[in-house]
Fold these 2 entries.
Entry 1:
Amino acid sequence: MKKLNLIANFIVDVIQILNEDVSQSEQKSSKKAVENKSEINEETGEEDTRDLNVISDLLKQHEKLQKTSEEDLKIMNSFLDSLVNLSDDEA
Amino acid sequence: MKRDDKNKNILLKLLLEEARSLANFNYLVSYTLTTRDKQLDQQERWRKHILKATKEMILYYKLEQQATNNLIKLPSIVASNYEGLFLLNVNVTTNKCSGFIYTFTKYKNDKKEKKEIIVYIYKEGELIQTMVVKEGSKAYELVFEYRKVFEKQLAPMRERINRMQYKLLLEIMYLIKKYLRQ
């Protein structure tokens, strides 16, 4: 079924996201963190840089998780819409 | 080197925004007439736990009142054998759920007679449609296939993701507390 394939694809995507090595995505740092990092780096010391790296990493992980949350809602809505459409077709 | 106030405020603002966003959780919940109250208690306990963990962020955004009033609601119907499957989205100030409740319309003694379910579809807490679905139809098959995927794959995966999200939230809160102390 089309909708169940969609769910299966989502599960595969999520597993990939969860298993992805964070270090592989180091270069694609979060825009938000980079902007703040450049703004702050001028006048901050080593501790700030360390914290910023931690924050940047946390933001990246958050972005990944956020995508899965959006997908969850998409899958549920897609399922509900399919159900409503099937009910109309079979009526 | 001592961090100046400007930099500290920029960092704090960023961290607080992140904490607010990370305090937005999705849960995939299933329940029956007999387990609904237990499910509600569990979700409420978890919500209060998140509020406690993010106290500094809630105070910063002055959300105490809204957070206190944000009681979780899960739809129910008058039937003894229903089952509800919902995606519940809970953030600090609001909660909403989308999903469905189904119940068998009547018990069939005759195995040859087709079963029938009535499905109540909810979006963002509102009942949007009620439909009767007969065994053998595509809709009937879809309901039970989805139920299987929901329980075996989607819900356990969501739990795993939520644990990771909670861990990130605690790390962000740790940094917030650190900068607030300085």
Entry 2:
Amino acid sequence: MLKIGMVHSTIRGDEKLLMNAARKRTIELIPIDIRKQILNPETGYRTVPCETWQERFDVILERCVSTTLGMHAVSFFEGQNVPVVNTSRVAQLCADKFTTSLKLRNNNVPTIPFAMAFSEDEAAEAAEQLGGYPVVLKPATGSWGRLLAKINDRDALEAVIEQKFVLGTPPHKAFYIQKYIEKPGRDIRVTTIGDKAICAIYREATHWITNTARGAKAKPCKINEALEKLSLAASHAVGGGVLGIDIVETRAGYVENEINHTTEFKNVQRVTEVDVAGKILEYCLEVANGNH
Amino acid sequence: MADFTGSCPICDARINLPQDTEESEIINCTECNNSIVVESISENQVTLEEAPEIEEDWGE
């Protein structure tokens, strides 16, 4: 029986769905709390001394809520020649929104116009290049709708940037700026696995931030041809795998916003009734068998 | 009947947890609603600790 190691740094509802799906399918899914492991390439899997990671697991599914821990874990396991879902390359491309945007643009995937600047004057000029205010200023790395700022004018830009310079760590001094797109009270999250758009939800909110972590409500969304095409193009641009692709509806059509490489899916599974957890496990087994 | 019992480390309430409770799972105390983590499970007892703070790099 193929063995999937599920690396985590906490068990969320999503990880529980994976564990339940594994039990139903008689798939051997072993949770690995990465916080209790030592990633020493000279030693093996800690629970069983002298057993190498490669002997113990056929594939690793990275499900760390901490992006930092997850990225290091993925790099380590790849170095141990254990296939990982998602790969370090995919994780690196998706963890940084600026890098994601560059990759999408270079692959002609429609995405929200963007720029990066490192000082106030340059950020202000970038805002003008993007069509003027409002713009959205966000950290290049981050999730759950945290630290997003809708900048309505130069005064607001000045205030936010000063705060970041004074209070922020170095990553906060890279200002990822997007053109503000007026959403129709919602955005779309498409879950893609491999070369398939599995299911999608609308994330409805009266606020301009439409993360469910910030209170947006999930509703089923039918995947039409255009949505499927865009989500799969975005997935392909960053290397594929198990992804949560955020898409915005505009007058000119769908545009891609950002891509999540350790995508949460419990809300998606609940409202669409698609067995996302089961499909993730099936994909992992395909990877273990060398089919991706 | 609950399958596991434990005490909330914050309010000391006795908490009943279902059979599919997992180690490292974060739950909310049914009494004080604070986030707590299942530190360990043995037989029908769980050890609960205060959940770690959400870090800046947490997410998807």
